[in-house]
Design brief:
Elements lengths: L2 E2 L19 E6 L6 H8 L11 E3 L5 E3 L19 E6 L4 E5 L4 E3 L5 E2 L6 E6 L2 E5 L3 H18 L20 E4 H4 L12 H7 L1
Parallel strand pairs: 1-4, 2-5, 2-11, 3-5
Antiparallel strand pairs: 3-4, 6-7, 6-10, 7-8, 9-10
Length: 201
């Protein structure tokens, strides 16, 4: 497995350079296409934005390391668990709105897409209905990365297995999702192939 540690490396001021024992991996998505979230991280809050992740996995399966995962960020800022987690982001726009007249889909920023049926999952969830799929190459890389991190940091290699809010998620040891922490979070979305991922971990 190849991990690119240089292309999108973050400065020290975009995370907390302190070490804690890791108990969880928390997975979310960018809500943006391509790697535009990286420049947003670097430019917010006068360059000191810390709601970042240790890794991004792009749609083609490329893994980018933004900072050493022994450190931590404010990816889940309202929970004391943040220092004990390794956050991973998947490049994915998340929910899209369907325009039946123009046969297009629009993301929350107004970008439009002409999508085939196999690019979209339609399921009503958290007040949204259409979701961009996570490519299989991305999920394979995610599986490989979580395997490595669980081994390296002695994290239990179990997945919580759902995207539902769970008020006890902070005591779970293993792989979780941002939507387990926040009722309003739409990542990971229903387009995530949970059965495939669970069988792989």
């Amino acid at each position: 497995m190849v991990i690119d540690k240089e292309t999108y490396k973050l400065p020290n001021k975009n995370y907390h350079k302190q070490e804690y024992t890791k108990k969880q991996i928390v997975i979310g998505h960018t809500g943006r296409k391509e790697m535009f979230h990286y420049s947003a991280w670097k430019n917010r809050h006068n360059g000191e934005y810390k709601k970042t992740t240790a890794y991004t996995i792009d749609k083609d399966g490329t893994i980018y390391e933004h900072y050493d995962p022994k450190y931590y960020s404010d990816f889940i800022p309202l929970h004391d668990m943040a220092p004990f987690t390794i956050p991973i982001t998947l490049t994915n726009v998340g929910w899209v709105k369907k325009d039946d007249i123009n046969d297009r889909y629009y993301d929350w920023l107004g970008h439009n897409y002409i999508l085939e049926g196999n690019d979209i999952v339609t399921k009503k969830w958290r007040n949204k209905e259409h979701w961009m799929k996570y490519p299989s190459k991305q999920l394979i890389s995610l599986k490989n990365l979580t395997d490595k991190l669980c081994n390296d940091f002695e994290i239990k290699n179990d997945c919580i297995g759902h995207t539902i809010f769970n008020e006890d998620v902070d005591i779970y040891e293993g792989i979780t999702f941002k939507s387990n922490y926040y009722q309003e979070a739409t990542d990971i979305s229903p387009a995530f192939n949970m059965d495939l991922f669970k069988t792989k971990v």
